[in-house]
């Protein structure tokens, strides 16, 4: 299995950034800000408690917090939302037939790294063995599976910042679904605690967390997209 590191124009940068002590939250931060007129501003560096209080006071704003920095995100667009709904329904239908856990999202926060980061994945899967970590407003720990759908303003965040945070937090599997490049990348956590790229075999990107489940790269971009039932029949789930 190949190990793939976060990519930046041909140079893998995050090991360098970490050595330099640079905050992952501030890298390319200008791409993550949208017009937040009327929203109470936060100071440049805030505690977890301050961020949570601010987020609760501004529920219409999509924002994450990492290393003391708040990152305000653009609202999801139509294509992003459509893909999110399709993936969610596919995973929920899978769990109807194999009830091994639950799907949360898209607006469900994850508290990572002992409170050093709060992220909002597009989707996350929590196995029954970790259900005790689900709180009313967030998941407190490392999800078994995280899905991020790439938007124009989230490329550095999804491919670099979140990749390293999810890896460091011990997320068992991480999918990056990229409508911009029509590409799916999936990673599993290796024995050494580093993400390993899940190789495509016979056109299938097979999950190591969801038994029998896989994606084909062409499915999310098809018009119309295949139905959940037809795909689960192909997988032999139903």
Can you characterise this structure?
- The chain is of the alpha+beta class and 238 residues long.
- The chain has a domain at 76-235: tt1808, chain A.
- The chain has five helices and 13 strands.
- It has helices at residues 14-20, 48-57, 78-97, 155-169, 228-235, and strands spanning 63-66, 69-72, 101-104, 109-112, 117-119, 123-127, 138-140, 145-149, 173-178, 183-189, 195-197, 205-206, 214-215.
- A six-stranded mixed β-sheet has the order 3-6-8-9-10-11, sandwiched between helices.
- A hairpin with a 2-residue loop joins strand 1 and strand 2.
- The longest helix is centred in the middle third of the chain and has 20 residues, at 78-97.
- It is globular, with a radius of gyration of 18 Å.
- It starts with 13 loop residues before the first helix and ends with a helix.
Short précis:
The protein is an alpha+beta fold.
Keywords:
single chain; 238 residues; alpha+beta; tt1808, chain A; 5-stranded mixed β-sheet; 22% strand
Topology:
Elements: H1 14-20, H2 48-57, E1 63-66, E2 69-72, H3 78-97, E3 101-104, E4 109-112, E5 117-119, E6 123-127, E7 138-140, E8 145-149, H4 155-169, E9 173-178, E10 183-189, E11 195-197, E12 205-206, E13 214-215, H5 228-235
Parallel strand pairs: 4-7, 8-9
Antiparallel strand pairs: 1-2, 1-5, 3-6, 4-5, 6-8, 9-10, 10-11, 12-13
């Amino acid at each position: 299995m190949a190990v793939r590191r976060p990519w930046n124009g041909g140079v893998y940068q995050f090991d360098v950034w970490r050595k330099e002590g640079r905050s992952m939250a501030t890298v390319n931060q200008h791409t993550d800000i949208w017009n937040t007129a009327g929203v109470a501003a936060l100071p440049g560096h805030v505690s977890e408690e301050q961020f949570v209080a601010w987020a609760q006071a501004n529920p219409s704003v999509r924002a994450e917090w990492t290393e003391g920095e708040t990152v305000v995100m653009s609202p999801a667009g139509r294509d992003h939302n459509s893909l999110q709904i399709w993936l969610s329904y596919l995973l929920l239908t899978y769990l109807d037939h194999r009830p091994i856990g639950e799907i949360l999202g898209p607006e469900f926060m994850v508290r990572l790294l002992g409170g050093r980061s709060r992220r909002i994945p597009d989707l996350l899967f929590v196995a029954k063995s970790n259900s005790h970590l689900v709180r009313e407003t967030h998941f407190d720990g490392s999800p078994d599976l995280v899905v991020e759908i790439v938007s124009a303003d989230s490329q550095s965040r999804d491919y670099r910042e979140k990749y390293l945070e999810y890896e460091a937090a011990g997320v068992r599997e991480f999918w990056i679904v990229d409508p911009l490049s029509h590409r799916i990348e999936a990673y599993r956590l290796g024995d050494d605690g580093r993400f390993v790229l899940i190789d495509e075999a016979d056109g299938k990107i097979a999950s190591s967390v969801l038994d029998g489940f896989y994606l084909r790269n062409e499915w999310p971009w098809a018009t119309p997209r295949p139905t959940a039932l037809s795909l689960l029949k192909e997988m032999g789930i139903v």
